[in-house]
Queue: 3 jobs
Job 1
Amino acid sequence: MSVENAERFIRFMKDDESLQQKIKAAGPEQFEQVSAEAGASCTAYDFVCAVVDGLKK
């Protein structure tokens, strides 16, 4: 798990609307599992860090 994986997960979600729906349906308890299944294992904290880094660009 890492911020780099979270950045990859964000890119995957941008390109895949079904993944967006899957993460919403899974809820916070299953966030790590859904990210791992997508091939970009990350924690919610990693994800937030990636979003914050993206805001700086």
Job 2
Amino acid sequence: MQNPFKFYIYEEAAYIYDSNQKRIFKMGVEESEDVAGEMETMILENGEEVDKEKAWEVSGLDKLNPV
């Protein structure tokens, strides 16, 4: 089964794309958020596809301590 998630870096921010929902979300420690349609297209066309570890590093999520 193929992983439905792809990770992107665009303008020093990390994003996760859910291919099942056809939506992209900004990843972040303080706040994660939906991405508007026009910005979504820019990220998918011009962003750098990266692995999960790189996306977590850029977003800062790798610094969180699990509870």
Job 3
Amino acid sequence: MRPALPRHLIPLMNDGGDNLYCLDSRREGEPPVVFWDPTAGETQEPAQVASDFMAWLTERVERELAEEGQTGGQDT
């Protein structure tokens, strides 16, 4: 991967476009989830998208359930 992912970021999920959702292990306690864009370079400060893993996961699950409800639970 270019540029290299900083060592303090622990990948959780690829968004399908080379961007990554990661845990930022620089903080004490529960690490926040951040969005890392490889096109922004190694010196970027990734944007925080959730205060911790559970908040991020809950938001992802709720979004998927809402989208499923809009399509009636059928694959499109």
